[in-house]
Amino acid sequence: MIKIDNVTMKYPNGTVALKDVSFQIKEGEFAFIIGHSGAGKSTLLKLMLKEENPTEGEIFINGKNFSKLKKRQIPQLRRSIGIVFQDFRLLPDRTVFENVAFAMRITEASHKKIKKQVPLALTLVGLGRKAKAFPTELSGGEQQRVGLARALINNPALLIADEPTGNLDPINSAEIMKLLEEINANGTTVVVITHEKNIVNDMKKRVIELDAGAVIRDEEEGKYKNEDTDI
Amino acid sequence: MIKIDNVTMKYPNGTVALKDVSFQIKEGEFAFIIGHSGAGKSTLLKLMLKEENPTEGEIFINGKNFSKLKKRQIPQLRRSIGIVFQDFRLLPDRTVFENVAFAMRITEASHKKIKKQVPLALTLVGLGRKAKAFPTELSGGEQQRVGLARALINNPALLIADEPTGNLDPINSAEIMKLLEEINANGTTVVVITHEKNIVNDMKKRVIELDAGAVIRDEEEGKYKNEDTDI
Amino acid sequence: MKIRTFSYVAGQGLRNVYKNKLMSVISMGMVAVSLMVFGIFFVILVNINANVNSIKKDYQIQVYCDASLTYNDPLIGEIEKQIKDNPNVESCKKISKEEAFQVLKYEMLKDDSTILDNMSNAFLPISFTVKLKNLSIGVQTANEFESIPNVKRVNYPQKVMEAINATASWIYMGSLLIGGILALAAMFIISNTIRLTVFARKRDINIMKYVGASNAFVRLPFIIEGMVMGILGSAISFLVIGYSYMSIIGTINNQLTTMGIVSLKLLDFTEIAAVMFLCMVGIGAVVGVIGSAISVRKHLEV
Amino acid sequence: MKIRTFSYVAGQGLRNVYKNKLMSVISMGMVAVSLMVFGIFFVILVNINANVNSIKKDYQIQVYCDASLTYNDPLIGEIEKQIKDNPNVESCKKISKEEAFQVLKYEMLKDDSTILDNMSNAFLPISFTVKLKNLSIGVQTANEFESIPNVKRVNYPQKVMEAINATASWIYMGSLLIGGILALAAMFIISNTIRLTVFARKRDINIMKYVGASNAFVRLPFIIEGMVMGILGSAISFLVIGYSYMSIIGTINNQLTTMGIVSLKLLDFTEIAAVMFLCMVGIGAVVGVIGSAISVRKHLEV
Ligand SMILES: Nc1ncnc2c1ncn2[C@@H]1O[C@H](COP(=O)(O)OP(=O)(O)OP(=O)(O)O)[C@@H](O)[C@H]1O
Ligand SMILES: Nc1ncnc2c1ncn2[C@@H]1O[C@H](COP(=O)(O)OP(=O)(O)OP(=O)(O)O)[C@@H](O)[C@H]1O
Ligand SMILES: [Mg+2]
Ligand SMILES: [Mg+2]
Questions:
Q1: Which end of chain C, N or C, is more open, meaning fewer C-beta atoms within 10 Å of its C-beta?
Q2: Domains and CATH numbers, chain D
Q3: Residues 74-133 of A with CB under 8 A from B
Q4: What pTM was estimated for this model as a whole?
Q5: What is the ipTM of this complex?
Q6: Pairing mode, strands A30-35 and A189-193
């Protein structure tokens, strides 16, 4: 599904955010990417969306080589991936409903399908009653969940979530993670970038840990940290 | 220090974010405000900044009645409070240094003082090397820490932080909380809005819990949740 | 793109006009004001042009016959026929000896006309006052008249003719130049306004792209928004100018008449409305569409 | 506000001009283009105005003396003195009988001048060609001339005089009107451009306020930015117009001369530069400052 091959990412200002990173995530897998603040997690997401291009190395998603992807093909690629952004990225002048529906509209879905599925997705993330609100009228956690609903709505083959519970209380977080697990059970590959120790420890899934841009750990059924450094 | 008196907050779109909330926080106290996503925590912060005005009830900070505050006095009020916003609110076209320095410039601090104190504050939050970066060149957690540095820089008598560790890994979080504890030890009143169970449980401080806009718990040395509902 | 997608996207464009009120009002205002400046000068220049043309038409050539020929001489008839057959002749009027005498006496000599007392009009020739269709080949036509038998002299002050021609072509070129400058200025202002309104929504465009929207999907609402704003703005401008013009045309024409300037007259608004409307709405719509398309393209590269 | 705060805040304004390149370039361009339109018409109208005034000056009154008086008659000298003493007289030229005869023969009768053969010039009067200072009291002055002893007739075509006066005042009022409209249009465009650029930074303004900045602290950089953009934009505009004007003035003046229109002449750029510069930079700077101040105020209410 995802193949990151010796990827190095150096930003124009000189910051090296990723150093020779390589890993693969197979179809149907559930993986956490963890690491300190600034370790390069979000950079990895940007690369997988072709929001940025790696300085070195190759990225493959579904066997497609990113460096060979034409500009016209990028929208298609992004539509096939559901993404929850760390900074939400909601359209401020559209309602919650329209924000989620937008991901369907770009796939030219029918009105009927949109009218049926969007409320379902909103209910799934606990925002059934906020459909008509605008993003500025939502709390931080609510905005984050709108982002999640938008990422889920097209039943993507791959779902990548950057800190999907960063603004959520434990109960909401647990519910969201259960939801992601269900989605994964239905065949979707799920990658979660997070720093919530409890979640990682509870779920016992694969853990890829980055530190200062390098992969320092890649374990099946990992924990947030080795016991000794646990705080 | 802070006195919230029968405050009700109804947003123009009809959402009742706070219902008859009352509590006091004394000078030098350290308090957590916790609650589900959408419980009204950030709304409380907005009221304390006079970003919004309560529909009913009164708010006092340092004995000043908010409803009697003139428009001209609002900047003075805000300068006396250090705030970390949930959505960071950094100025995108200024460097990290200038974002933090801005809080000093508005107090008409001298260049010398600014040059001395800003790097100190940045080092305190672990961003000593990012002074020249722009907010868009920072990771989520780094931006959050810039916001914290800006809140600390004027040694405010009151510090309110909305999810200051929402984008931080456990180690960074622990360090930030230690920092806030030190600041509190030096006499600053600290209010932290958070949903990080571990932090609340570890610190054994006062906990005010909101649910659907109402205070449902207010305990000295509280835990994140009563044991039975703990997940 | 499916029909329903197109109609959704087009609807978004209309909705944006309403949603971004401040920006829409400003854009429309900018279109209206800049095209109003263009329109005012369009009106002024069209009128100057038309009046220069009517002055050109007023310009006359005098053809003098042999003074020995009398009013009803068949040779005079022959000359008249030949003049009228010339394709460049608009009209031709025969002047009798007596009329010429009166003109000399009262229009040329005026108070000094006593010198003509006791003189007969016999020494004056029969003449023809000829108006031309096309003044720019006037010299050639005058030469043709001169070669008609029994024509003694053709009076065509070449300098005046050339001056009128030159003035007319100056005004014509001036109109084109100023009209062009103003149209360019209007385009500059309109397209830059759109650029700023698009810039203010740069983040939204980026978000749409990050979620996987195609360029066409992102761009089309902006293009429709630009078109709507261009059309509405220019229509407002057209209506304001049209209304103002119609309110003042009467006053000005009266003034001109009382001032004795009968050869100058403002055109009726109906005579210029169609061209003006097309110019203005055309500029508005085209600049709106192209301006939006270009402004958006810049932010699509993510 | 302390000096160092002021200088910091002012510096921020300058820095913003540089930082927000797109918006600065567009704002300056808008100022430049809209003031260029204003400036072009300023130049045109000032020239038309000046030329109408010079035509007014060219207008002459003819004063005819009694035909029995000869060139060196002391009574003629008396008449000349009285004319020259009139405060409204700019210049006065004496025309001899012979000169008048030549004018009659070659300028008025032309090819019909054979009728004057064998006539002497004795029947023509001595006359004075008088230029006035102020045409609007021309009729009164002419009446004064008429009451001078031995003056037979004063030729002052009242209608022409009134027409010139009317035209001049129309052009004057037209200049004011069009100049006013264009200045308003420029102000509208400039201030709305600033409004859009401020709007795009609304969130930044809000953030500054949330952190505790005073209104003055937030507003001043924008005001300085607006002023800088207004001044730079209008200066660009002034330079472009000045350069273009100076490049074409020679060509146009030559054209006018070859066309025989000697009474029309474009003004030298130095004659209009100062007023024009002040008008343009004034509009630019004032609108920049006021536009910024007002636009920012809207977003300060948080
Ligand atoms: N656009 C950019 N230009 C320059 N440097 C950048 C840019 N974006 C991120 N960085 C730097 O790259 C490094 C990795 O950033 P990234 O956003 O990937 O971190 P992260 O692991 O997501 O951290 P967090 O948990 O705080 O979100 C950081 O040091 C950051 O400052
Ligand atoms: N500007 C607004 N207009 C209308 N409703 C709002 C507005 N801001 C917040 N709300 C609503 O008020 C309620 C409380 O929001 P608030 O931001 O205070 O929650 P919170 O406790 O901070 O949640 P979180 O932990 O998710 O940040 C929510 O239901 C939210 O949708
Ligand atoms: Mg990140
Ligand atoms: Mg909140």
A1: N
A2: 3-55+162-299 (no CATH), 67-149 (3.30.70.3040)
A3: 86-87, 133
A4: 0.88
A5: 0.89
A6: parallel
